[in-house]
Amino acid sequence: MTTMHCTMEQLLALRGPDAATEPGHAAARDHLAGCVICQQEAARLDQRVARLKALPVLIPARDRYAEIEVRLVKERRIRRVRWAGIGGLATAAAVAGFLLMNLVTPQPAAATEQLTQVMTESRALEGELARLNPDGRAMDLVTAQVAGELKARIAVLDEQLQSAEMPAGHRPTDDQLIELWRERVGLMDALVDVHLTSASQVGL
Amino acid sequence: MADSYLLLNADTVLAGVRAGDPGAFERLYRAFEAPVFNLARRMCRTAEDAEDVLQETFYEVHRSLAQYRGDGSLWGWVRTIAASKALMRLRRNKYRDTDELTDDIHPGRSDDTGLRMDLEAALQRLSDTARSVVWLHDVEGYTHEEIAAMMGKTTSFSKSQLARAHVKLRAWLGEEVAV
After folding, report:
1. Do B164 and A49 lie within an 8 Å CB cutoff?
2. ipTM for the complex?
3. What is the pLDDT of residues B60-101, one digit of tens each?
4. Do both A196 and A116 map to the same domain?
5. What residue spans of A103-173 are helical by DSSP H?
6. Residue A92 belongs to a domain
7. Which of A19, A25, A169, A201 suits A113 as a labelling partner, its CA being 20 to 30 A distant?
8. Which of A65, A69, A79, A129 to mutate to test the interface with B (most CBs of B within 10 A)?
């Protein structure tokens, strides 16, 4: 007569939290209590699981955080641009509605609002650029040239914008100022893109 | 497991991450980087796949943090995301299972001490599915019900994968019982 030993599935089930009370395990439990071979097999199983738990913690070969951060910054930018787009559309719709109803030219308050908005966008891009730490990263010659040109154009714009502090008659009109700031935002956006692309390519 | 700083300051760190503070998210990453990578590396076949899972996990954590209500532990929540990402990676790669093939190469010689493997090698030799079930159940402590839900399979599937994997590990390791 052949003795039927516990299967691996039964031995595993007997290690479970409900092993002592589960009626379905009663036969296997009784057999295990009286069978030295199955007790040894159960001990092997316990030891194997203990060895699995004792395996060393593996760590990544290199730091991946910079790559993660670059993508998160990109995602934040996309979200912000989407919201800005929605906000811009809403503003445009409101302005159009106002003009249609009142048949008047834009008031100085509207120009101030636009100016504030475009200056805020520019400041946000400055912040993102600072977070990317462009001066602390290596970049190839072509990228460095493109970044250099963009920075030079931004510097020229900054000089023109400083003239806004000149006495009346010499300074640009509100419309001209808005255009200058818009141009600056465009250039800053391009500069951030250049550094983002460079950072993601080098994996820094 | 999370480091002590995060355990003590979890609410502050989470509030910082939700407010868009990049420093706070980096603290979260540093706290869970090693355990997430370890889980991914134990489930995936290559270090490159595990590194991709590590990244994908933290993108998901960043995107979904608003949904974390603090019902369970933060590590438990992050770990489930990591395990799901690792399983998705395995499904995407559709690696060829090698354990059946290698079993046939040396039939009946599993007790030969010359063929004994160390546990790391034996674990790697299991199929992706079997290795994942072993790791999730025996080391991470997931129940068969939880594993089945993550894999989109039945509880019986998880139990049978675990049992078959242990039979193979037992043979490949040529284990003796330590007295």
Report:
1. no
2. 0.83
3. 999 888 888 877 888 999 999 999 999 999 998 865 555 544
4. yes
5. 108-132, 141-162
6. no
7. A169
8. A65
